[in-house]
Amino acid sequence: MTLAVTPQAQVDRSAGVTAPAGFRAAGVIAGIKPSGKPDLTVVVNDGPDQAAAGVFTTNKVKAAPVLWSQQVLTAGKLKAVVLNSGGANACTGPEGFQDTHATAEELAAVLQVGAAEIGVCSTGLIGERLPMEKLIPGITQCVDALGASAEHGLAAATAVMTTDNVPKQAALTHPDGWHIGGFAKGAGMCAPNMATMLSVITTDAIVAQPQLDHALRNAVEHTFNRLDVDGGTSTNDTVLLLSSGASGVTVPADEFEAALTALAADLVKQLQADAEGVTKHVSITVKGAATAAEAVAAAKVVAEDNLCKTAFFASDPNWGRIAMAIGNAPTAFDPALLDITLNGAPIMVAGGKGVDRSEADLSGLEIDVQIDLHAGDASATVLTTDLSHAYVEENSAYSS
């Protein structure tokens, strides 16, 4: 599937982290998951540049790999990233951090680089130590499987999946001869205050590290941070951006940020489409807010409200629930001016009943919620999903 981004470039979902020159990747079965599914990924930057940036969870309870990757990224470069599924390595104490350190040291030794050049990510059940007797040998297996083909990129995207049903990847080729690609995983525990679960993005553009970091933070704020499946900010959320510079093309900062944002937005749409138990893709736009921050906050209140989400699941245009949720938002507005439109039907107008609710058809997959506060000029959109029987069933049985 190919989506138009600009007249100059397109996002292509058949490619991922290996689309940019200078990158190899692999995903293998190391035996971390009892299911026997792929569970270990390595992405290697062969340079010549090794600039890198990262954005991490704001949760106070941070997994060991988050603490490790934050620490090593203070140098602004990475040679490689190793990611495991099947265990979060969160709330595992000093021993868990030692496991992360040992993971980085093992990959560094195989690649003949320093451990401080290795990023580490983990995803899965919180509170359990990783089976290091399986993970460590799996690293050599993964390095032996490295390659630069599209198949290698897809294998890398597949091995990070937990409750995801499908791998999520995308790439963009710019006509000036540079590329950007990436993968993401995440289906639940998604209300990122930085990013959604795990994502690795690569580029062969020449971008100075400070600009790389700035572009990533801005792109995350307008893409990953605007997906809110269930209000849960994970202990492991990480987005890493690596630049090889192998294209030889120096890219202006604003042009790179636009491409990065387009790529991240596509990954986020894929995350929304594969959310746990999803039957509705919901877009909530708040306009007429006093500030952009208030617009985002108001949209998130609706996105996280269980009564709104169950109404979406039932295709029920119960606008009273949306009005209730907005009234609880940390947002200044006059309730007598509030407008709510559902899939084009102005169902609440000037604080009261608008057209008959039967005119709002929510029976399809897509639900568009437009809320006008009439309190300013700022606006923001947040993506969410419904709250279905399948979501409850999947999450009630996750640890068992």
Automatic annotation (TrEMBL):
Pfam families (alphabetical): ArgJ
Gene3D superfamilies, per database record: arginine biosynthesis bifunctional protein suprefamily, ArgJ beta chain, C-terminal domain, L-amino peptidase D-ALA esterase/amidase
Positions marked as site (Involved in the stabilization of negative charge on the oxyanion by the formation of the oxyanion hole): 123-124
Pathway participation: Amino-acid biosynthesis; L-arginine biosynthesis; N(2)-acetyl-L-ornithine from L-glutamate: step 1/4; Amino-acid biosynthesis; L-arginine biosynthesis; L-ornithine and N-acetyl-L-glutamate from L-glutamate and N(2)-acetyl-L-ornithine (cyclic): step 1/1
Enzyme Commission number: 2.3.1.35, 2.3.1.1
Top-rank taxon, per record: Bacteria
Positions annotated as active site in the UniProt record: 196
Sites annotated Cleavage: 195-196
Predominant localisation class: cytoplasm
Keyword Transferase: yes
GO molecular function, one term: L-glutamate N-acetyltransferase activity, acting on acetyl-L-ornithine as donor
List of residues binding substrate: 162, 185, 196, 276, 395, 400
Reaction(s) catalysed (UniProt annotation): N(2)-acetyl-L-ornithine + L-glutamate = N-acetyl-L-glutamate + L-ornithine; L-glutamate + acetyl-CoA = N-acetyl-L-glutamate + CoA + H(+)
Signal peptide positions on this chain: none
Subcellular location(s) per record: Cytoplasm
Annotated keywords: Acyltransferase, Amino-acid biosynthesis, Arginine biosynthesis, Autocatalytic cleavage, Cytoplasm, Multifunctional enzyme, Transferase
Record-linked HAMAP family: ArgJ
Oligomeric and partner information: Heterotetramer of two alpha and two beta chains.
Family per similarity comment: Belongs to the ArgJ family.
Biological role stated in the UniProt entry: Catalyzes two activities which are involved in the cyclic version of arginine biosynthesis: the synthesis of N-acetylglutamate from glutamate and acetyl-CoA as the acetyl donor, and of ornithine by transacetylation between N(2)-acetylornithine and glutamate.
Name of the protein in its database record: Arginine biosynthesis bifunctional protein ArgJ
Organism: Kribbella deserti
Gene name linked to the record: argJ
